[in-house]
Amino acid sequence: MKPLEALHESLHKRVLVEMKGGRSFRGVLDAYDQHLNLVLSSAEEVVAEEVTPHSGMTLLRGDSIVYISP
Amino acid sequence: MKPLEALHESLHKRVLVEMKGGRSFRGVLDAYDQHLNLVLSSAEEVVAEEVTPHSGMTLLRGDSIVYISP
Amino acid sequence: MKPLEALHESLHKRVLVEMKGGRSFRGVLDAYDQHLNLVLSSAEEVVAEEVTPHSGMTLLRGDSIVYISP
Amino acid sequence: MKPLEALHESLHKRVLVEMKGGRSFRGVLDAYDQHLNLVLSSAEEVVAEEVTPHSGMTLLRGDSIVYISP
Amino acid sequence: MKPLEALHESLHKRVLVEMKGGRSFRGVLDAYDQHLNLVLSSAEEVVAEEVTPHSGMTLLRGDSIVYISP
Amino acid sequence: MKPLEALHESLHKRVLVEMKGGRSFRGVLDAYDQHLNLVLSSAEEVVAEEVTPHSGMTLLRGDSIVYISP
Amino acid sequence: MKPLEALHESLHKRVLVEMKGGRSFRGVLDAYDQHLNLVLSSAEEVVAEEVTPHSGMTLLRGDSIVYISP
C-alpha cells in the first residue's frame, strides 16, 4: 500500500488536516491529488483555538500540509 | 474529482484566498493553472484587517497560497 | 542498499518520526513512498512533551520530516 | 484563459509587484517567463515606504514574488 | 569525481552530519541516495550538546542536511 | 523577449544583485544559467553597509537571488 | 561560459563558501555537481568567528549555499 492509497480510504470521511504555521482544518475529504492538494467540504478552520466554519469547498495547498488524520 | 476540477467550479465566482504571511484576498476567480497561480478580478487585499482594493486583474503566485475558499 | 530499502525493513514496525518545527510521532509504519510521505497507525503525536494519541491512520507529508528512527 | 495569458495583457504596462519580505516594485512589465521571472523597466523599489528608483531593467526572480497587480 | 562518489568512500565509516536547525548526528553511513537521504547505524543525535543514542537505523531526509563530514 | 534574454544584455556589464537575507553584490556579470546562478567578477559584497571586495570570480546561487539590476 | 564552467576553474584550488544561516567554509574544492553540491578537503568551518578544522572530505549540500568565491 502507498500513502495515497491510504488517503483514498478517507475519501468522503471527516479528516483533520494540520497545516504549517499552527492552522488546522476539520472537514469531509472530497478530493486529493499527488501533491496532497486537498478539497474539504463542511470544513472548520482552527487557529489558536478559534473556530471558523467555511461554506462550500475549501482547497488546501499540499505544500502547506504537515499531516492528515481521520 | 481532483482538486483542480473543484477549483474549476469556482471560476467566475468570488473566492477567498489565504496567503502565507497573514495576507488574504477576496475577488472573482478568472483563471488558474496547475501550480495554483490564480488571477482574481475586483480583488480586495486584506492585511491585519486593513482592506486595499485592487483595480484590474491580480495574479497570485501559487506557492504563496495556503487555501482557497468560496 | 538504498535509504528507501532500509525504510522497507521498518514496515509494520514502530518508528519515531521527527518533524520540522518540534513535532514528533511514534507509530507503526504502514506505508511510504519515494517522497518519504508516511502512513502511521496507532500513532502518538508529541509536541513539547504533550502526547496526543491519533486514531486510525496518520499520513505525514514527507517534506516536513527530518528523520525516521526505529 | 490561463494566468500567464492574463499577464501577457499587462506587457508594456505599469504593474505593481509585491515580493516576499516586505519589498515591492512598480514599473513597466517588459518580459516574463513561466517561472514568473519578470523584467521591469523604469522601476521603483519600495521598502518600508522608502522609494528607490532603478535605472535600466530590473529582473525579479519569480520565486520571491507574492502577487502582480496593474 | 562527483560529490556522490566522494560520499561512496565514506560508506560503512563514521560520519558527522550537520542538519538545519542546530541538530547533528554521528554514526556509521550505511546507505545514501541522490537526494542525500542517508541511513546511519549506531547513531548519536546531538542537540545543544545533549547527546541521544539511537538504536537500529536512522534515516535522515536529505533536504534537512547542511553538510556531511568524516 | 524573455527575462533571460534581458539578462544577456547585461553580460560583461556591472550589475547589482540583491540576495535574500539582506546581502547584496555589485560586480561585472560574466556568466549566468537558467537557474539564475550568476558569476560576477570584480565583485563587492555589501551587508549592512559594510563593503567587502572579492578577488577573482564569485558564483552566486540562483535561489538566493531576489533581483538583478544594472 | 556558464557558471558551472567557472566553478570548474576553481577545482583543486582554495575557495570560500558562504552558507545560509551564517556558516562559512574555506577549503580546497575537490568535486561539484549541477546542484552545487561541493566536496572540500582541508576545510575550515567558520561560525561567528569560531574556526573548526575538518579532517578528510566535507560534502556541502548545494541548497544551503549562498555563494562560492576564491
TrEMBL record, chains A, B, C, D, E, F, G:
<keyword id="KW-0687">Ribonucleoprotein</keyword>
<dbReference type="InterPro" id="IPR047575">
    <property type="entry name" value="Sm"/>
</dbReference>
<dbReference type="InterPro" id="IPR044641">
    <property type="entry name" value="Lsm7/SmG-like"/>
</dbReference>
<comment type="similarity">
    <text>Belongs to the snRNP Sm proteins family.</text>
</comment>
<dbReference type="GO" id="GO:0003723">
    <property type="term" value="F:RNA binding"/>
</dbReference>
<dbReference type="InterPro" id="IPR001163">
    <property type="entry name" value="Sm_dom_euk/arc"/>
</dbReference>
<dbReference type="Pfam" id="PF01423">
    <property type="entry name" value="LSM"/>
</dbReference>
<dbReference type="InterPro" id="IPR022901">
    <property type="entry name" value="snRNP_Sm-like_arc"/>
</dbReference>
<protein>
    <recommendedName>
        <fullName>Putative snRNP Sm-like protein</fullName>
    </recommendedName>
</protein>
<dbReference type="InterPro" id="IPR010920">
    <property type="entry name" value="LSM_dom_sf"/>
</dbReference>
<dbReference type="GO" id="GO:1990904">
    <property type="term" value="C:ribonucleoprotein complex"/>
</dbReference>
<feature type="domain" description="Sm">
    <location>
        <begin position="2"/>
        <end position="70"/>
    </location>
</feature>
